[in-house]
Amino acid sequence: MANDSEATLESTPTWAVATVCFILTVISILIEHLLHLLGKYFKRKRRKSLIEALEKIKSELVLLGFTSLLLTVSEKQIANICIPKSVGETLLPCASMTFDIAEEETKCADKGKLSLLSRNGVRELQYFIFYLALYHVISCILTFSLGMAKMRRWEKWETETRTLDYQFSYDPRRFQLTHQTSFGKRHLNYWSNNPVLYWPVCFVRQCYKSVSKVDYFTLRHGFITAHFAEGSNFDFPKYIKRALEKDFEVIVGISWWIWIFSVLYIFFNANAFSSHFWLPFIPLMVFLLVGTKLQSIITDMCLDSHDKSHVVRGTLLVRPSDHFFWFGWPKLLLHLISFILFQNSFQLAFFTWTWIRFGIRSCFHQETENIIIRVAMGVSVQILCAYVTLPLYALVTQMGTSMSKVVFTENVIRGIQIWREKAKRNMTRHSNLSLDISIDSSPSFGHMAVDTVDENKASEQESENQEPKLGSFHGFDTQNRGKPFHS
């Protein structure tokens, strides 16, 4: 009888195979059912952006599963790819390694070569893909939960906009100097125009009160004034939440260039590069860079308004514009945040995989400092980026030139789309009938065309009476020239 380690399905009891298949099938069905219930919940709550984000997470899991399946199918073919020993012994993750030649790699051993990747190595790589998928899902859930938790504080600030103190502070009949406003006192200081102190102050501010109340009120006032009527009763926090849900689709997605950086992370994890001194710090450095830039955008808007006028009416008014962002592209910061979160999840998954599969004191983690650095960097970057940087981005990115379409609710967008389609059909039909009138010169056909035009006008009037009125949709004010007042 064959050894347990060498046993195949030919020498395994059928009840054992059936039991394992049954348990794995039940677990898979439960996970699929939970995802289905979550999608139904989002659909019932009309959270279209979250539904699309959930579908993107599913597609990423399918991609990782398909990659694992390809490794399973082709593990023997990969193991039979032979490379010279001089090449196979370069860029090892550990300083010294002993090579165990398995039976299936004897083909390469007979030639004095090594396998490109042993069958055991392929199986270990499949374990890593599982941990990566698990950490990616956990990271997405934690990111969205912490971001929404931070924004609940803004809802309390929104209630203050209806108080008398707020109305007095933003009274348009009162004149004051720019540096006397609360926003000016925070950003117009000795360091604002000092290139040596400017960036260090912005760097520190992202870690302490990244979004202050005065910043929130000023950016809110500038956004509403730029896109709506002054004094409009617009629910700004609800709009920010919908915008964040829309941006969450980009965060959960894994772009091709992020995959390239992930592969480079594995490549540079060799002992020759001393990667444990600098590789774990890459997400942290990008995180600090993005947070510093977001803080500098707020200060730049204050300086821009101060340069245009030293005296303001009511309070300082910031003007949204894309030129405050890198390359005039606000979404670039969102892609960098997506890179930070996935690379951080990748590093945590890599650490967990090497810990569980090879032990906590394997060649990957020979020093205690290495373990502390990797764990501390991974946890801190995940929490700070989700709780601090992402909400800050959601607020500051509204100061771009364009306005996100999520400012309208789903009902309003659907009503506008229906109205647009009907208008296009009516215009097309009217242009076709006009062409028929110009071509037909026969009196009989002319009378028929005129009658048809009259019928068309009557049908247009009837359709206009039946078309959705924008004022009937939630979030539109027909008395205020069709400008949204509530989201």
From TrEMBL:
| A GO cellular-component term linked to this record | membrane
Q: How does it sit in the membrane?
A: Multi-pass membrane protein
Outline the segment boundaries, as ranges, of region: Disordered: 453-487
- Chief location category: membrane
- Membrane-spanning parts: 15-39, 125-146, 248-267, 273-291, 332-356, 371-396
For this UniProt record, give its keywords in alphabetical order, as a comma-separated list. Answer: Calmodulin-binding, Membrane, Pathogenesis-related protein, Plant defense, Transmembrane, Transmembrane helix
* Domain of life where this protein originates: Eukaryota
Its annotated compartments are: Membrane
UniProt GO MF annotations: calmodulin binding
Q: Which GO terms describe its biological process?
A: defense response
Physiological role: May be involved in modulation of pathogen defense and leaf cell death.
State the family named in the UniProt similarity comment for this chain.
Belongs to the MLO family.
In terms of PANTHER family, this protein maps to: MLO-LIKE PROTEIN, MLO-LIKE PROTEIN 1
User: Domain annotation text?
Assistant: The C-terminus contains a calmodulin-binding domain, which binds calmodulin in a calcium-dependent fashion.
Return the protein name: MLO-like protein
| Protein source organism | Abrus precatorius (Indian licorice)
